[in-house]
Every structure is written in structure tokens, then in C-alpha cells.
Amino acid sequence: MHDELILPAEKYDELILAARSARKNAYCRYSRFAVGAALLCKDGTIYTGCNVENASYSLGICAERTAFCKAAADGYRKGDFAAIAIAGGEEGMPPEQPCYPCGACRQVMAEFCGDDFEVILADRVYTLADLLPYRFALD
Ligand code: THU
């Protein structure tokens, strides 16, 4: 966890609330594990996402990548993102435990974000550098 938080204090609460709200739309009929994410762009825009599963299990997509795909489809690119909040847990239960992003989502963060990108979980904040210190890149 890093203690030099970058955003204004109230932004962390706002993003967690947005992630929890997005989680209500999780389509998770196979795992019954509901995740929501709220991705903050540096211009203040917030993109939300939820996990969307499929009967062909491997086609499911995580909440974080849903949010990044929505933003990328609107033209946002590397360097445009400040933070993401993630709220996840058993469907129908409050998301009290931190829901760490999976490896695939960390790699997607690496595609679009730098070391100081903040990942906000239930009660702690990490940076991308904390969560994926040695990461693959082509440049
Ligand atoms: N899931 C996410 O949405 N984000 C993560 O970072 C981890 C896992 C979803 C994928 C699947 O729909 C469900 O949680 C159970 O793995």
C-alpha cells in the first residue's frame, strides 16, 4: 500500500461508491461473484464496468477490463487515466473484503497506465507499480 495519495480525499469515496453501484449490474450467473469497477480519467470522466460472464466460461470479461474497453472505445489512451476503484465479492453480499485485480486486468492497466496509476480497493490504495512491478511491454 502506498501512503502518498494523489487524488483529493473525497475522490476515493466517490470512486468506491461508483464501483459498488456498477457492481449491481454484474452478470455473474456462473460464478455468483459480482465485481464493479470505476475508472477515473485525468479529465474527470468516470467509466464504470462490471463483470460479464458467458456460458462458454472463458469468454467472460472482468469489471476492470469492461471499464477500460469502454474508455478506449471513446478514444482514451495511455496516460489518460488516474485511478480505478474495484468492489467485488459474493453476489448479494456487501463487498467488504478487498478484491484484487486479476493478472489479465493488471496487464491491461499496464497497457494504458503508468507506475503511479492508483488502484483503490475496499480499505487500501495501491499503485500499478505495487501490483505489477516487472511488467511486459513492447516499448
Ligand atoms: N473478476 C473480475 O471482474 N475482476 C477481477 O479482477 C477478478 C475476477 C470476475 C471474473 C468472474 O466473472 C468472477 O469475477 C469470478 O472470477
SSE topology sketch:
Blueprint: H1 9-23, E1 33-41, E2 46-50, H2 63-73, E3 81-90, H3 103-112, E4 118-120, E5 125-127, H4 128-131
Parallel strand pairs: 3-4
Antiparallel strand pairs: 1-2, 1-3, 4-5
Descriptive account of the structure:
The chain is of the alpha+beta class. The protein has one domain: Cytidine Deaminase, domain 2, CATH 3.40.140.10. It is built from 4 helices and 5 strands. The chain has helices at 9-23, 63-73, 103-112, 128-131, and strands spanning 33-41, 46-50, 81-90, 118-120, 125-127. It has a 5-stranded mixed sheet with strand order 2-1-3-4-5. Helix 3 links the parallel strand 3 (81-90) and strand 4. The protein is globular. The chain starts with 8 loop residues before the first helix and ends in an 8-residue tail after the last helix. The mean pLDDT is 96. It binds tetrahydrodeoxyuridine. The site of tetrahydrodeoxyuridine has 13 residues, from strand 1 and helix 2.
Brief summary of the model shown:
The chain has 139 residues and is α+β, with helices and mostly antiparallel strands.
> Which small-molecule ligands are present, each listed once?
tetrahydrodeoxyuridine
Q: Which residue ranges are poorly predicted, with pLDDT under 50 across at least 5 consecutive positions? A: none
- The appropriate CATH architecture is 3-Layer(aba) Sandwich
Helicity range: 25-40%
Shape: globular
How far apart the termini lie comes to 27 Å
Count of DSSP H/I helices: 4
